[in-house]
Design a protein that fits this description.
The structure holds 2 protein chains of 2 kinds.
Chain A: H1 2-14, E1 15-16, E2 21-22, E3 25-26, H2 27-58, E4 75-78, E5 85-89, H3 93-107, H4 112-118, E6 170-175, E7 191-196, E8 207-210, H5 225-228, E9 236-241, E10 250-257, E11 273-281
Parallel strand pairs in A: 5-11
Antiparallel strand pairs in A: 1-2, 2-3, 4-6, 6-9, 7-10, 8-9, 10-11
Chain B: H1 2-15, H2 17-54, H3 60-73, H4 78-97, H5 113-119, H6 130-140, H7 153-162, H8 165-186, H9 193-229, E1 233-238, E2 241-246, E3 255-259, E4 267-279, H10 281-284, E5 290-291, E6 307-308, E7 313-325, H11 331-339, H12 348-377, H13 382-396, H14 399-418, E8 421-423, H15 426-433, E9 437-441, E10 452-458, E11 461-464, H16 481-492, E12 497-498, E13 512-513, H17 516-529, H18 532-538, E14 541-545, E15 553-559, E16 568-574, H19 576-581, E17 583-588, E18 591-594, H20 597-612, E19 616-625, E20 648-657, H21 664-673, E21 677-681, H22 686-696, H23 706-713, E22 727-731, H24 732-737, H25 740-749, E23 752-756, H26 760-772, E24 777-781, H27 787-792, E25 795-799, H28 805-810, E26 813-815, H29 820-846, H30 848-860, H31 869-879, H32 881-886, H33 912-940, H34 945-948, H35 952-955, E27 963-964, E28 970-971, H36 973-1002, H37 1009-1012, H38 1016-1024, H39 1026-1035, H40 1051-1070, H41 1075-1080
The chains are: A alpha+beta, B alpha+beta.
Organism (chain A): Oncorhynchus kisutch (Coho salmon)
Subcellular location (chain A): Cell membrane; Membrane
Pfam family, one (chain A): Na_K-ATPase
Chain lengths: ~280, ~1100
């Protein structure tokens, strides 16, 4: 009996046919409250959009307001591998095929023809500064050519497998783009140097750098952002391991050597340096 | 045999004590376990319902759930007050199991009085000497029951540490430590985040545990002080002096006097009794009061009439007895010691609280697990998912709310205690606030309970006595022989005495033992004729019939002053009409004259005149008993009257006034404007009652009763339309004849009601009548007989000074100063705390939205996490706590006593409007404020909002160290995590900033903040929240907000909250009853 009564109150709460109330409210009451919330939330959305709009107005289109987190630019490698681990088997094409594809894709914008078409030849070893004159923006900014051929043996033009098949793989290193960064002073260009971690130091063998000495030429700096400098070609350094020990994990760390880049924080393993693991298997 | 049985039981009981404790523990555990299961399923069901059918707009089902749980949490501290009534309830239950066969333990009832005296080295007249009493007190210990063993403090502390939500947080902490341990074992450089989180969680649990523990200790201390403030008193005779001592100091052999309304202070062997009846219901379960006399009527001490038992109550009459046993040695004590070890089951309220915690926990766990599964599905490691689970739980559980509610109620109870309202259970604070009818006693509550003789009528003339406190008023002619006779009767037929040891005090300020009017007479005679004590010593009392409500007179028989005159003098006082009925002559100018019709009419006129002034009139008469009928040594039997009480000689009238207390008219006016009906219930004459009612404003000026209208229009009462009369005075005899419908009719149609000449039983009928009409009734009472009414009432109010112990026990609240105005203060406080709790809860719940939405958006639209777990903890337990408590100090909005009482079925503490405001409106603004600062920081660092959606997978990928922002720059994992932590900090600061606005808008529900004013304390509290905020920002690993502007991103939203709510309140004020009020006034 009591249960019945309870049931009916629940039912009454959901739909009360006597007062024509659904969940304790009549249709018009629901309508009003929903309308209120609709209007209220539209207003809130408007308010939010307004504040966002005002905030966005304070931003510069070409340069972020703050760059203090990017004091030390990060470094990255291509191919990236899985969790910074490149391992493949020379005899098994499938294991390194994806690296080749990655590199092909990555390097395709650097084809000489494309570079010649979009970018211009700049004076090497000096910053390519394109200052704005006061409020008049000097836009779009021009960019310097970085031709794929600069990477020589690692350009993938002669050796389509970038040395992977031969067990002499190419790794491409890039320095993260940071707007306005001048990586070297007194005309000294930053360069990349790679080495193995302590216990692996005798296993790394000979390493070749392209372009020569693994330098990032100063003419590619400063970067003006993707809006002002649409066709910017990020300079690259390729390293080729000529006689690396096979069938073993080798931890390699590459760092940028520059007289104008502060050392990154200890926590950040990718600020001004990059570590990765390389393993080349030869046995089936 | 039976005794040894009892003994063995008690012995075995002490042995098994620890076992029973463990048993009860496991019992409660299984109870909680069995409770948790259904509650979980119910909550899941409700939740899924609310989610499916309402989405975000108005989740009223879950609101219902919340309001339910919150209303339960209100009654938190009720369990604390239980101990007060424990002993009584225990004894009732046990009396059934023990047959009344404790015969071996007491033999005093079979001894003669002299034997008894010898046994205890006492004297039947003088009592014990003080030295003996002190010696016995040292020997036997205080006369009180050994309290049941209390739970050790460390167990209480552990309960706080591991009870309720704490288990949930401990689990979270342990998970954190586990996660860190696994990380430490598997990774070279484990991130410390989990370790920090674990430590923070543990610290949080310990700190909140300590807080609750100290809070509980504080509350129980208050309850303790309540106990101490209402100590039981006993009137003992030591060295021939009557003195009131603490009942604990009573020792065996003491001569004790008890009167109607007292609690028996120890087991007594009655030596003399006058119409004494005791209520043994607490001991034997018999509800009928039983009379006591000095004679042994039964071998069984429980059955015999000459023993009165400790902690039972004397209902009427007086008795004198020798204390036979004290403390644990009393019959009650034996039973109590046997049973005190038995754990009483959990109170319904404790269960409700447990249920509430389970409910909240269930919801939190359910949501947490849902998100956990979601997170795992979205590709998180289990470690991260577990941390999110902890985050969800933490965001959902309002950790601080329970403590806040307790603190608020405790604060109010303390504040009320300061204003002379002792609240026995905290729940009563709130009940009082919703009171709609107060049935008040007149004497002592509305008036000063300081009867003063105002007028006298003798020699066919009204004489005015001096009622001023400093005796500066006019005096009357004291030379008349009639006055001498009147003074003698008044002095002799009077049981009141001055208490010992106050000879230095002016007479009017001395304390007396005796009722108010007798004391008034005593003081009056002492003032005008000198020492009453001497008069009484000269006229030794031979017999006495104390006043009772059936005869309505009191008489005593004395020897005369003149040693040669062997006649006895019978003196009588009482209700004038009754006295007059017994008189055949009247004394005029000292000469006895027959009572003729003229005299009677003159008497009637004087009586009506004095009564019309609202004064209590007593008639006095005497009779010198003829020596031939009543020779010296005549045995007067007062129980079975064997002497004449007719044909007496009328001496005169004395009338007393009990002036209204100064604060009462104001208080009654306040009640009226607060929509509270004040009904006066008194045993006094209707005219007296009406006069006082008019004096204090219960019958307001210009309102007439039916009788008034009739006499004004000069028509019979029957022709007056009762609807024309707003006020009415109802006589107790009329009340008896009213049907239930008529009663309802009267209560409904008259706003100003006075019940006169009512018996305590009728009080109960009145209370029931009011409750039938849906009123929340507060009843004041002081007598034993009031306790049914006090219990029946929604809130019983006992009198701290004049109230009997029984009434104090039955009441929910005690007025320390017996003042009606204190009730009104209580009502005001009750309404205030109800409002303030609403504000507190509204404030606390609001921040849940900005805490949960980051997780929702994080998982649904894949943006970097805007708010971390530790940050949520910091808000819930750090920055939100103090402002929430500060709202309990909020002053009343000016209209608090001008609105109608709360309807308990409709007006809930947490209603859907509160949730609508907190979650749907203010909370949403707050969330937007938080998100705005989040977007500002990301955008200023290069990540514009447009690229954020869906960025999460790359953002949280440790291997992706060249994530491109909106400007083409590339970021390493650590670099963007630092930005993310900055966002957490900014989000946290934003919540703090918007909560500042929230605490300001929560200060009022209707008034503008500008009307309410900003109290300094409030600002201080707001600033105090800044401290943990700064500490957090500077100590925790994420970098501080390096740009000043990031601290103030949410300020526009703060302003919006303030403006929005001010406009809302303005609309509420402008359009009372309008849509805005109906939908948003919580």
């Amino acid at each position: 009996m009591a249960k019945d009564a309870e049931k009916s109150t629940w039912k009454d709460f959901i739909w009360n046919s006597r007062t024509r109330e659904f969940c304790g409210r009549t249709g018009s009451s629901w309508g009003l409250i929903l309308l209120f919330y609709l209007v209220f939330y539209i207003f809130l959305a408007g308010m939010f959009c307004l504040t966002m709009y005002v905030m966005l107005q304070t931003l510069d289109d070409y340069k972020p307001t703050w760059q203090d987190r990017l004091g030390t630019p990060g470094m990255m490698i291509r191919p990236r591998g899985k969790a910074m681990e490149i391992s493949y088997n020379t005899t098994n094409t499938e294991t390194w095929d994806m690296y080749i594809k990655t590199l092909d894709n990555f390097l395709s914008p650097y084809n000489n023809s494309l570079q010649a078409e979009k970018n211009e030849e700049c004076t090497p070893d000096q910053y390519f500064v394109q200052a704005d004159s006061g409020d008049v923006k000097n836009n779009p900014k021009r960019s310097c050519q970085f031709n794929r051929t600069f990477l020589e043996k690692c350009s993938g033009l002669d050796d389509h497998t970038y040395g992977y098949q031969a067990g002499k793989p190419c790794i491409i290193i890039k320095l993260n783009r940071v707007i306005g960064m001048l990586p070297g002073k007194d005309g000294q260009a930053p360069f990349v140097t790679c080495g193995a971690k302590k216990e692996d130091s005798d296993k790394i063998g000979e390493v070749e750098y392209y372009p020569e000495n693994g330098t990032f030429n100063l003419m590619y700096y400063p970067y003006y952002g993707k809006k002002a400098q649409v066709n910017y070609s990020q300079p690259l350094v390729a390293i080729k391991f000529l006689n690396i020990t096979l069938n073993e994990d080798i931890n390699i760390e590459c760092r940028i050597i520059s007289n104008n880049i502060p050392p990154g924080s200890v926590r950040d393993k990718f600020a001004g340096k990059v570590s990765f693991k390389l393993r080349i298997n030869t046995k089936g | 045999m039976a005794y040894s049985q009892c003994f063995s039981v008690s012995l075995s009981h002490t042995n098994t004590h620890t076992h029973t404790y463990a048993l009860s523990l496991s019992l409660s555990l299984s109870l909680s376990l069995s409770l948790s299961l259904p509650s979980l399923s119910v909550s899941l069901f409700l939740l899924s319902l609310s989610l499916s059918s309402f989405s975000l707009s108005l989740p009223s089902l879950s609101l219902f759930l919340l309001s339910l749980s919150l209303s339960l949490s209100l009654s938190l501290s009720l369990s604390l007050s239980l101990s007060l009534s424990l002993s009584l309830s225990l004894s009732v239950s046990v009396s059934l199991s023990f047959p009344p066969s404790l015969s071996t333990f007491q033999t005093e009832h079979k001894m003669s009085i002299e034997e008894c005296c010898r046994k205890f080295n006492t004297d039947i007249v003088q009592g014990l000497t003080n030295a003996k009493a002190a010696e016995f007190l040292i020997r036997d210990g205080p006369n009180c029951l050994t309290p049941p063993p209390t739970t050790p403090e460390w167990i209480k502390f552990c309960r706080q540490l591991f009870g309720g939500f704490s288990i949930l947080l401990w689990t979270g902490a342990i998970l954190c430590f586990l996660a860190y341990a696994i990380q430490a074992a598997t990774e070279d450089e484990p991130a410390g985040d989990n370790l920090y989180l674990g430590i923070v969680l543990s610290v949080v649990v310990v700190v909140t545990g300590c807080f609750s523990y100290f809070q509980e200790a504080k509350s129980s201390k208050i309850m303790e002080s309540f106990k101490n403030m209402v100590p039981q008193q006993a009137l003992v005779i030591r060295e021939g002096e009557k003195m009131t001592i603490n009942a604990e100091e009573v020792v065996a052999g003491d001569l004790v006097e008890v009167k109607g309304g007292d609690r028996i202070p120890a087991d007594l062997r009655v030596v003399s009794a006058h119409g004494c009846k005791v209520d043994n219901s607490s001991l034997t379960g018999e509800s009928e009061p039983q009379s006591r006399s000095p004679d042994c009527t039964h071998d069984n001490p429980l059955e015999t009439r000459n023993v009165a038992f400790f902690s039972t109550n004397c209902v009427e009459g007086t008795a004198r007895g020798i204390v036979v046993c004290t403390g644990d040695r009393t019959v009650m004590g034996r039973i109590a010691t046997l049973t005190s070890g038995l754990e009483s089951g959990k109170t319904p309220i404790a269960k409700e609280i447990e249920h509430f915690i389970h409910l909240i926990t269930g919801v939190a766990v359910f949501l947490g697990i849902t998100f956990f599964i979601l997170a795992v599905c979205l590709g998180y490691t289990w470690l991260e998912a577990v941390i999110f689970l902890i985050g969800i739980i933490v965001a959902n559980v309002p950790e601080g709310l329970l403590a806040t509610v307790t603190v608020c109620l405790t604060l109010t109870a303390k504040r009320m205690a300061k204003k002379n309202c002792l609240v026995k259970n905290l729940e009563a604070v709130e009940t009082l606030g919703s009171t709609s009818t107060i049935c008040s006693d007149k004497t002592g509550t509305l008036t000063q309970n300081r009867m003063t003789v105002a007028h006298m009528w003798f020699d066919n003339q009204i004489h005015e006595a001096d009622t001023t406190e400093d005796q500066s008023g006019a005096s009357f002619d004291k030379t008349s022989a009639s006055w001498a006779a009147l003074a003698r009767v008044a002095a002799l037929c009077n049981r009141a005495v001055f208490k010992a040891g106050q000879d230095q005090l002016p007479i009017l300020k001395r304390d007396t033992a005796g009722d108010a009017s007798e004391s008034a007479l005593l003081k009056c005679i002492e003032l005008s004729c000198g020492s009453v004590k001497q008069i009484r010593e000269k006229n030794k009392k031979v017999a006495e019939i104390p006043f009772n409500s059936t005869n309505k007179y009191q008489l005593s028989v004395h020897e005369t002053e003149d040693p040669n005159d062997n006649r006895y003098l019978l003196v009588m006082k009482g209700a004038p009409e009754r006295i007059l009925d017994r008189c055949t002559t009247i004394i005029i100018q000292g000469k006895e004259q027959p009572m003729d019709e003229e005299m009677k009419e003159s008497f009637q006129n004087a009586y009506m005149e004095l009564g019309g002034l609202g004064e209590r009139v007593l008639g006095f008469c005497h009779l010198l008993m003829p020596e031939d009928q009543y020779p010296k040594g005549f045995a007067f039997d007062c129980d079975d009257v064997n002497f004449t009480t007719e044909s007496l000689c009328f001496v005169g009238l004395m009338s007393m006034i009990d002036p209204p207390r100064a604060a009462v008219p104001d208080a009654v006016g306040k009640c009226r404007s607060a929509g509270i009906k004040v009904i006066m219930v008194t045993g006094d004459h209707p005219i007296t009652a009406k006069a006082i009612a008019k004096g204090v404003g219960i019958i307001s000026e210009g309102n007439e009763t039916v009788e008034d209208i009739a006499s004004r229009l000069n028509i019979p009462v029957s022709q007056v339309n009762p609807r024309d009369a707003k006020a009415c005075v109802i006589h107790g005899t009329d009340l008896k004849e009213l049907s239930q419908d008529q009663m309802d009719d009267i209560l409904r149609n008259h706003t100003e009601i006075v019940f006169a000449r009512t018996s305590p039983q009728q009080k109960l009928i009145i209370v029931e009548g009011c409750q039938r009409l849906g009123a929340i009734v507060a009843v004041t009472g002081d007598g034993v007989n009031d306790s049914p009414a006090l219990k029946k009432a929604d809130i019983g109010v006992a009198m701290g000074i004049s109230g009997s112990d029984v009434s104090k026990q039955a009441a929910d609240m005690i007025l320390l100063d017996d003042n009606f105005a204190s009730i009104v203060t209580g009502v005001e406080e009750g309404r205030l705390i109800f409002d303030n709790l609403k504000k507190s809860i509204a404030y606390t719940l609001t921040s849940n939205i900005p805490e949960i939405t980051p997780f929702l958006l994080f998982i649904i639209v894949n943006i970097p996490l805007p708010l971390g777990t530790i940050t949520i903890l910091c808000i819930d337990l750090g920055t939100d706590m103090v402002p929430a408590i500060s709202l309990a100090y909020e002053a009343a909005e000016s209209d608090i006593m001008k609105r109608q009482p709360r309807n308990p079925t409709r007006d809930k503490l947490v209603n859907e409007r509160l949730i609508s405001i907190a979650y749907g409106q203010i909370g949403m603004i707050q969330a937007l404020g938080g998100f705005f600062s989040y977007f500002v920081i990301l955008a200023e660092n290069g990540f514009l909002p447009s690229i954020l959606v869906g960025i999460r997978l790359n953002w949280d990928d440790r291997a992706c160290n060249d994530l491109e922002d909106s400007y083409g720059q590339q970021w390493t994992y650590e670099q963007r995590k630092i930005v993310e932590f900055t966002c957490h900090t900014a989000f946290f600061v934003s919540i703090v900033v918007v909560q500042w606005a929230d605490v300001i808008v929560c200060k009022t529900r209707r008034n503008s903040v500008f009307q309410q004013g900003m109290k300094h304390t409030n600002i201080l509290y707001i600033l105090l929240t800044y401290l943990p905020c700064c500490v957090f920002i500077n100590l925790c690993p994420p970098p501080p907000l390096s740009r000043p502007s990031w601290w103030f991103c949410a300020v526009p939203y703060s302003v919006l909250i303030f403006v929005y709510d001010e406009i809302r309140k303005l609309l509420i004020r402008r359009n009372p009853g309008g849509w805005v009020e109906r939908e948003t006034y919580y």
